[in-house]
Amino acid sequence: NAGVTQTPKFRILKIGQSMTLQCAQDMNHNYMYWYRQDPGMGLKLIYYSVGAGITDKGEVPNGYNVSRSTTEDFPLRLELAAPSQTSVYFCASSYSRGGARTEAFFGQGTRLTVV
Amino acid sequence: QKEVEQNSGPLSVPEGAIASLNCTYSDQGSQSFFWYRQYSGKSPELIMFIYSNGDKEDGRFTAQLNKASQYVSLLIRDSQPSDSATYLCASYNTNAGKSTFGDGTTLTVKP
């Protein structure tokens, strides 16, 4: 049972380059999220999705784009990478919007450095 | 003001002591609350959730919720060195369908 799988685990980008962080879950969860975590800080929500074809902005969406064409996949696109996007990125999913089943399951993270 | 505030760390306790972690939230629409543990360089993992006022116990962990005071806490009894980690408090707003995380409290349990 893979859970939430993120690729790649590490990446170095040059300023102005673009890339896509991949996220896939095999738990049939409707809800998926992208967070970034800067050193010593908590998780900041970038984008989230409540189902295939539906996405919405979180706290810090600028510089990112997402799509959700299937229940399983939720890729995060970085356009024109900037040093401020150096961070650890976590993808997460959850089953439901109510009560205990809103527990989020996290991927292993992608450590991104922009130089 | 942050939506979820945690007491600033780091927090250090001796092995076998009780560790107390606190969290306040400002979104009155939040219905569920979660404590995640995050080891250095790893992803967060859920250790407790609570959505009713009062206490909820699971092994050495007790979560407490007071919605009137908008306060959530986590007590870790008989702390072990393996409990050394950063603890993230999160509130969940059902209508919005998303969680908000605090910045975390780093706990060190000294043998």
Protein described:
The complex is a heterodimer of chains A (115) and B (111). With 115 residues, chain A is mostly beta strands. In chain A, 0% of the residues lie in helices and 49% in strands. In chain A, the strands form 2 sheets. In chain A, strands 2, 4, 5, 6, 9, 10 and 11 form a 7-stranded mixed sheet that branches. Chain A has a 4-stranded antiparallel sheet with strand order 1-3-8-7, with no helix packed on it. The radius of gyration of chain A is 13 Å and the shape is globular. The N and C termini of chain A lie far apart (36 Å). The relative contact order of chain A is 0.33. The model of chain A has no long low-confidence stretch (mean pLDDT 92). Chain B has no helices and 11 strands. In chain B, the strands form 2 sheets. In chain B, strands 2, 4, 5, 9, 10 and 11 form a 6-stranded mixed sheet that branches. In chain B, strand 6 and strand 7 form a beta hairpin. Chain A binds chain B through residues 31, 33, 35, 40-45, 48, 50, 58, 90, 97-100, 102-104, 106-109, and chain B through 4, 6, 31-32, 34, 42-46, 49, 51, 88, 90, 92, 94, 97-104.
**Uncertain spans of chain B:** none
Give the proportion of residues in helices of chain B: under 10%
Helix and strand element order of chain A = EEEEEEEEEEE
SS-based class of chain A = mainly beta
User: Could you tell me the mean pLDDT of chain B?
Assistant: 92
Rg of chain A, Cα atoms, Å: 13 Å
Distance between the termini of chain B: 36 Å
Query: Beta-strand level of the residues of chain B, as a percent range?
Result: over 45%
> Helix coverage percent of residues of chain A?
under 10%
Number of helices of chain A: 0
Instruction: Give the C-alpha Rg of chain B.
Output: 13 Å
